[in-house]
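can u pls check wat happens w/ adenosine-5'-triphosphate
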Amino acid sequence: MLLEISGLSSHYGRIQAVRGIDVTVGEGELVALVGANGAGKTTMLRCISGVQPLTGGTIRFDGRDITRMPADQRVALGIAQVPEGRQVFGPMSVEDNLRLGAYRRKGDDVEADIKRMYDMFPILFKKRELPAGTLSGGQQQMLAIARALMSHPRLLLLDEPSMGLAPLLVAEIFNVVQALKRQGTTIFLVEQNAYAALAIADRGYVLETGAVVMSDVGQTLLADERVKEAYLGL
Amino acid sequence: MFAELLQYLFAGLTSGAIYALAGLGFAIIYNSSHVINFAQGEFIMIGGMSTAMMVAAGVPLPVASLLAVLVTMLVGVALEKFAIEPARNADVTTIIIITIGASIFLRGLAQIVWDKEFHSLPAFSGETPLNVGGATLMPQSIWVVGVAVVVIVALWWFFNRTLFGKAMLATSFNRLAAQLMGIGVKKVLMVSFALSALLGAVGGIVVTPITFTNYEAGIMLGLKGFSAAVLGGLGNGMGAIVGGLAVGIAEALASGYLSSAYKDAVAFVIILFVLFFLPNGLFGKKGTDRV
Ligand SMILES: Nc1ncnc2c1ncn2[C@@H]1O[C@H](COP(=O)(O)OP(=O)(O)OP(=O)(O)O)[C@@H](O)[C@H]1O
Ligand SMILES: [Mg+2]
């Protein structure tokens, strides 16, 4: 397994946001984590990236225990995150945002990669000189994804990439996620949009108030009566 | 009439350049940590004092200046490492109080390591005044403004043209995202203290032939740098520069046309004015601009 999380717990002060979660993501897999508002999805991703302290459990990446590793070193190992709310560097140009995505990478092919990102997201090329903050929500989401890809991640963490986007853009974002999977990127996708996420995922986990209550193959979860009722509004 | 005004402007630009450098020092640390470093003035003092003491001991000026800048940067890094970093989980107000404590400590240390006397440096290229439009311009003033310009251009280059400089900017815009890019925010904090110390030291060195220096010289200069920074909008580099020049010129005009007794009051009046009427400064962002 590329990512092995066992017994993960995390608190905000006295509030326990995540309670003893076990999750694995295999090389090349697309794994979805779905759950309602406040279930603890973001907290989990923050723990994996090392920007949120754990109060229990371990995280292993590629066989290596990274539970106490500082955030910047995890990026160097190959863990990239597209955070909730995109978090682009608003006053900086689109191109600088991309360049910063490659901050931990050595090598001189950064410019070639930037070009690759422009091929993948032509709108970013058109807006490359503009401050990222002037982009629309959907464009910022593309930028956030491209910025994360600039680090050549072995594991891509996506936190609600479809949040706040118009339906057409949501479809576009999910197409991008699928395309990345086809190219072999390992993806851990967090979504409130359970239907879309489970539909493209190999496997899925359902999170409720900080604990995993179900985990199965994506399609199986989609067909599950309880999941349908609780998350798909069917 | 005009010559008189020009004379005051020269004086204002000279001190304004120092305030601008100090203001930039405040801005850089504020951006990386939201801390207002009240030991910024002590960087100015340490730069000037250590150069003066080394020159007095026979070290050539260029060597002494370089060493003084390095010493001050070391002090800046040590301040971050031993006073700010251990308190990184404390709230910002606590850390600001720590910097005030550090400034008192550094002044005490300067008294012990050196003394309480005033010290000076010879002007870098003589004392023969130039006559410009009827006003006299001291060559050292040209040094002050020239060095400030060079430092500011270098700083601009660093923040806009180097990856690490951009990473520092990115950290100030969005700390979480910076961490997720693999930017080491601890290193950013340390470099910001080193840079601010450098700015202070350089200002302290070039101004010492004009104003002299002693262990307390940093108090007023720091305060004026702070008023430059708040006038420009805390954390705004361009603002700190404009703010510094504005404070310097306002001060020179006030002491020229009113009374030199008002000179130091100008900076306080500006701070109060900004706090009451312009809480974001001239160039500061208004409120929250996050989407
Ligand atoms: N900074 C914080 N301080 C205190 N409590 C927090 C903080 N962030 C999250 N929480 C709490 O932790 C729990 C989990 O939050 P988290 O953001 O991980 O949920 P989520 O599943 O990502 O929700 P959403 O779908 O709304 O993004 C919630 O109860 C939330 O109120
Ligand atoms: Mg969330």
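Chain B has one domain: 9-119+137-277.
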